[in-house]
Write a structure and sequence with these properties.
Layout (H helix, E strand, L loop, with lengths): L1 H22 L4 E6 L5 E4 L11 E5 L4 E5 L5 H27 L3 H45 L6 H50 L11
Antiparallel strand pairs: 1-2, 1-3, 3-4
Helix pairs in contact: 3-4
Length: about 210
């Protein structure tokens, strides 16, 4: 009976040992490239080589995991810029969908905005024509005074200078409004094209068949 008990205890001890061995963590090694460009395999990796990437290898030579190199400063910056552009594009898409329901809505908004800008340009052009007419009148008066032997008055000369300065100012305003007109027209055209892309993406049917199916 005693021998049977010892035998059972021995079997239990062996079983526990086998379980403990099976659960013990497998020893791993690290393979990295040192400063001389040589691949090194060690049971630990110096901290300075970690950012360059390395491989975790089992004791049997099997690659268990490959850790890629840490991104460079340029790559981090490029990734951040790409993320910023993605967020801006998503916000742009949301704003388009919030403001418009159809492409016609955008075209109507474009027509209204351009009509308002063109009205401002027309007003400025009318003012420019009026100022030029005043300049012609003053120049004719000055010419008549000179032909009659009179000295052109300082007030006439000062008015001419003032009106000519106003001409340049109004011309600059017209150029700015025309530039704004072109920019607004281009922006609406971009909105139309992007809205079409959004609609096409949302209306695109999703295929449920596999590539290999007939």
């Amino acid at each position: 009976m005693a021998s049977m008990v010892r035998w059972c205890v021995l079997i239990a001890a062996l079983a526990w040992a086998m379980v403990s061995y099976a659960q013990a963590p497998e020893k791993v090694y690290y393979r990295y490239v040192n400063d001389e460009g040589v691949k090194v395999l060690e049971d630990r990796i110096p901290p300075k080589y970690v950012p360059k990437g390395y491989e975790i290898v089992s004791m049997y030579g099997e690659v268990l995991e490959t850790v890629p190199p840490a991104p460079s400063a340029e790559e981090v910056e490029e990734k951040a810029e790409a993320e910023r552009l993605r967020r801006e594009r998503e916000a742009y898409n949301r704003e388009l969908k919030r403001r418009y329901s159809t492409v016609k809505d955008i075209r109507d908004a474009k027509r209204r905005s351009l009509a308002e800008l063109q009205g401002n340009i027309s007003i400025l052009e009318g003012s420019l024509s009026n100022i030029r007419a005043q300049i012609r009148d003053l120049e004719e008066r000055a010419a008549r005074m000179e032909r009659s032997g009179q000295t052109v008055s300082d007030s006439v000369l000062e008015n001419l200078e003032t009106l000519k300065a106003e001409v340049e100012e109004v011309k600059a305003q017209i150029a700015n409004r025309q530039k704004e007109y072109d920019q607004v027209a281009e922006k609406y055209d971009q909105d139309i094209e992007r809205f079409k892309e959004i609609q096409a993406a949302e209306n695109r049917p999703i295929s449920t068949s596999s590539k290999g199916s007939p």
